[in-house]
Each structure stands twice: as C-alpha cells, then as structure tokens.
Amino acid sequence: MSAEATNPAPSRRRGRPRIDLRRLGRAALLGPGTRDRLPDAISHVAEAHRAHHPDADLAVLHRAYVLAESSHRGQFRKSGEPYITHPLAVTLILAELGAETTTLTASLLHDTVEDTDVTLDQVREEFGEEVCYLVDGVTKLEKVDYGAAAEPETFRKMLVATGNDVRVMSIKLADRLHNMRTLGVMRPEKQVRIAKVTRDVLIPLAERLGVQALKTELEDLVFAILHPAEYENTRALIADNATAPDALAAIADDVRTVLREARIPAEVLVRPRHFVSVHRVRLKRGELRGTDFGRLLVLVGDDADCYGVLGELHTCFTPVISEFKDFIAAPKFNLYQSLHTAVAAPDGAVAEVLIRTHQMHKVAEAGVVALGNPYAAPAEGVEPTGEDGERSDPTRPGWLSRLLAWQQSTPDPDTFWTSLRADLAQDGEITVFRPDGGTLALPAGATCVDAAYAQYGEAAHTCVGARVNGRLAALGTVLNDGDTVQLLLARGEAGVEARAGDIAQPDPASGPSPDWLRHARTPAARIAITGWLTAHPEGVKVPAAAPRPPSTAVSADPPAARDAAANAVVADLPDASVRLARCCTPVPPDAVTGFPVRGGNVTVHRAGCPAVRRMEAAGRVPVDVRWGEAAECRVTLVAESFGRPRLLADLTEAIATAGAAIVSATVEPPSEQRVRHTYTLQLADAAELPALMRAMRDVPGVYDVSRAQHPTPAPH
C-alpha cells in the first residue's frame, strides 16, 4: 500500500487550483452516486477528461470508480485521508494531461490488485485485457517474496511492461508525483530515499517520455527534499521577483504588437520558470534579472508560422544568436519540437523565447500521454500518424529498446539497479547510420564500442576496428549525431572480416580488451565486455601478428645478393655502384633519380620521394638514372592491419603464394588493436608487384598495403 500522506507541496503549478482531497475523501465514503451520473468525487476527473476528449464514454470510468472505492473502503493513508483519494488524484493528473479513457480506467484501479482482494482476473473480466495489462504493469512485487530485491525487480517488471505499452510508465509517473506531493508525513530518512530514487530513475524516465509537466514538478519536489537550503534561497528569490515590475510582460506586449502588424496569428504567454530552472540559471549567470525568472512562449497554428515568428523577432529585436536552436527540423529524441531563441530589449534585458505550434506544445507538456492510444489499429485507409503529422508510435524508442535488451543480461538485481541508474543518467541521444542504410540510436557520448554491441550483441567481441564517415577510427572514437559507422569484425578462427549486415560468430580465441571498458558508455556494452572478461580470466592471447616487442626476421641472403638486386644504371656512369634507397624502395617502372654519396656510390630514389626535395633544397645535384633490363627487384611494403590470431601466418602465406621472397620483416607493437607490418621482399619480376599488393590486401584484417615512405635524415 502506498503510505505517503498529504503535505503542502513546496511548489505548485499556476492555473487550476489544487483539488481538496479531504472533501473528495468524504465524498468517496458516501459511495457511488445515482445511476444516471458520475459520483461527485470524480466529477473533477470527468470535467478534465471531457476537456480533451469531448466524446469520451464515461460509463467505464463510473464502473472503475465504483470498484476502486468499494475495494479501498476502510483503508486510509498515513495522513488520515481515505485511500481512494490517492487513485483519484493520480487519475486527475493524467486527465489534465489529456490521457485517454483506458489509461484513466487503469489509473483508478492501479492499487486495487496490490492493496485489496481484487484479482487481475476480475479486472480482466470486467474491463478487458488492456486495462488488466496496465494494472499488472504498475503493481509492485511483494517484499515477502523478493526481499531487498523487491524495488529493483519491480522497476524491471514495469520497464518490461512499458516496452509493450508506455501507458504503464505514464501511470507510474503520475502515481509517484502524487506520492511526492504528499511525502511530508514520512520519516526524513524515507523521504530522502524516495526522493533519490525519483531523481535517479523516475525523472529521467519522464524526460525520455517527454512528459515535461510531470518532470518539472518532480524536480522541484526532489529539490526541496534533497537540497533544502538551496530550495529556500531560490524560493525567496522568486518571491522577491513576484513583487517587482514584470519585465517579461512589457517585452511580451512588444512581441504581440510586432506579430499583429505582421499578420501572424499567435498567442504570446509569459511562462514562469520552475524552481530548479531558476536555480540552474542563477548558477549559470550569477545575479538574476527580472527576465531570468521566465520565458516567452509563442503559440501558432502551423510549422511555417513558427519560422515566420522567428523572422519577425530577429528583424524587430536584437537576436542573441548563440541561443538559437531548431528542434522542429531536428526534434529531440523524446518527441519535443520547438524553436528556441533569445532577443534583447532596448534596455539590454534578454528574454528567452519558445516558438511552437499548439500541437507541439501539447506534446512538449504531456509527451506520450498526449498521443492518446498509440496501440489502437488505425481506421482503414488512415495513416498511423497523429495530428499535424506528429509521430504517434512511441512504443519502442531507441533508449527503451536498448534498456530492454541489456536488462535481459543482468539477472542480478543489484547489477540491474546500478546499470539502470547509469543508463538513465546519460543526457540526450544520437542517431548514427550503418552502411546498409539502417540506424542505431545511442546515448550522447557513445563510442564505436557501444555501436558495435548495439548492432551485433555479443558477436561484437570480435570487433577489430571501425570506419567513421568512411575513415578508419579507433574503437574509442566518440560518435556524433548523423555519423555513418561501419564496424569491422573478425569472424571464425581465420578472422574473416564481417561485411555490412553480417553477424559474426564470436571467436573463442579473441575477445574484447579490458581497455574497452574505458570506452563503453552503454550498460549493454559494459555488461557484455565484463561478462566475457570474467569468463576468460586469462585474457586475450597476444596475436601472433602483434607481439609486444618489435621482432625482425632476416633472410640468409648474403650482402652480395642484396646489392645485385639494384637494377638501375646511372646514365653518365654505367659502371657506378648503385643502391636503392630504403626510404622509398623504387622498383621498375617507377620514375627515379639518383644522388652521388660517399665512396662513389649512387643512391636511387623514386622521383616523388620527400628525400629528393630535401636534397635538392640543400644544393645536392641529381644524376640521371634508368632501369636496366633485369626484371628482378626488391621492394619494401607496409601492411596496416587489425590484430588477430594467425594474421602473421596468413600474410606470409599470401606473400609466398604470390612468388615473393621475404628478405626481412618487422612487426611493431600493437596500438589500439592496430598492427603495422613492414616487409622487404624480393620479386622475380617487378610486374608482379601490383598483384602481390592486392593479395596482401585480401588477407582478412588487413585494411591497407602501401610502398614504404620512411623518413630519411636531413643531408649534411
């Protein structure tokens, strides 16, 4: 039973006066009214409901009230009110937000199964499957059965139910709001515990579902309990400003005049900031001015008028460009749409302005509650969209899908509870694109590691790299909204790279590095990585292709054989000793040039080698060099790859199959799972070089093969 009792709330929304719960409680005790009309105790609910749904059938609300009142009769809240006042208050909150009849019916009954002898079967038989599902979704699990795990497991149950019907969470949020309004009779330590859960879980959920009207009041109530000194200071600032001249009202009059002259029908309102918002502005700006205690809200008929208003304001007032944000063209992940701007009055006062349509305002205030029943099948021939083309199916937004996915991997209640709070602490959401045209919804600040686990699940253990917007990127790269991400996976023992759309089978010989945990932002990624590392305490074996110390293998070719590989002739000195520069390893038919060095030798470089420009700048005189008739050549190639088991063996096999001999090979220590291999190779025919490079690039995990471009020391 919800035991919170009434207490004057630290803040209340302006407008409709708060309902007298004591009077409603006395009316409830009198029982249902006549058969022809609703009981007086829920007349306020009926009035608020009809304001949003004029044609609503209230008969089902009548029956739900009768069942709730009779089943809760004799139960009282700790403050002394009859218990029926609680479901009535919760239902009134939802009715004022515009909830449809099914939600209100379930709201009236939301505590009957938990606190009375009414069963789910009775609810199903009397009110149908939908109402039964909603009531079951918000019914708490018993501490007798779950002990200390009852609270986290109850939230898990509610979230899973929300995955199928977000109206479950709408009822829970309204339930928590009324309990927070009436929390004052509880012991201080219990007030703090409930306020912290509200702050960490319920407020972020209200934000994600777009129910700003509930979120802002919950924030103020939590603020009053957890930060009483700051709350009192903010309350005093707001009280002092209430007696001062209304600076925003004067600017609002000017805005009305401008829009009237522009013939743009609009409603201009002064929207006071709530307590937490004022506190945040004070921390940001220091001393507050009169215009900091609220914002202007401009409501218009359609999207085009929003931009018309914006143009007029920026023309007739001085705009503060840094404050402009367009959430109409790019809505927030919680359905929010609006134009944000700020203008400066002649006296220098800055007023923030919100511009939106009436439908946008409805959704901004009530979020998913304002969308009615998004699960009802649309009429034949009717597209499943809301008014003004608003999105009307919030059943599985990205954040909820992610949450439902990772919670399945956390049977431990403590781990689930910790991960849930961490997940909900993420601010904002981004959308990234896959090469196949699909999208991934991720929290702001997510990295390539998070994208890998979001797309492939546990198969992402074999991720070896990523391309972001076509360029290779480290797995720790933070993604931005709109990025295109191609994830590269090694599949099977051979480490075949997974193409876009493929799902790799995890390779038992490879897996995530502990460093990945530093880059993982989503619980799904962290849980999967931690699970793999726990199951493989020995860690990932160092791939043969990526030894810790640099290692060099040199062939047994004598120096004379290497010199014989120099197939170049100096035009003016045909008998001169020639050496091919190691910085660029020229081979036929490269354009080449030479420079005399000590001992009468000539070093041959590719014409485009950076060393050529440096020596010419230093005054060194080049000599003409041409290739001889011999086809044999020596070349140095650099292979860039992602580390994986057997990579070195696969590369050397590809080189041998292409008919090249390895003179020397160097493998650098891995960095962020990338490995650089440098091979000096002897080819029987220089014409085979392109085919050799293609064969090396085809080795899974190798993403680039190029001719060596080593820096050379500056000439003396």
The rough form would be described as: elongated
Number of continuous helical runs: 27
Rg calc = 35 Å
Biggest β-sheet: count, sense, barrel?
6 strands, mixed
What share of residues is helical?
A: 40-55%
Strand content: 15-25%
Describe this structure in words.
By secondary structure, the protein is α+β, with helices and mostly antiparallel strands. The chain is 41% helix and 16% strand. The protein has 27 helices and 22 strands. Strands 1, 2, 3, 4, 5 and 6 form a six-stranded mixed beta sheet that branches. A five-stranded antiparallel beta sheet has the order 13-20-21-19-22, covered by helices on one side. The protein has a four-stranded antiparallel beta sheet with strand order 10-9-11-12. It is elongated. It starts with 20 loop residues before the first helix and ends in a 9-residue tail after the last strand. The relative contact order is 0.06.
Considering the chains and any ligands shown, give keywords for the structure.
alpha+beta, 6-stranded mixed beta sheet, 5-stranded antiparallel beta sheet, 27 helices, 41% helix, 16% strand, disordered N terminus
Short description:
With 716 residues, the chain is of the alpha+beta class.
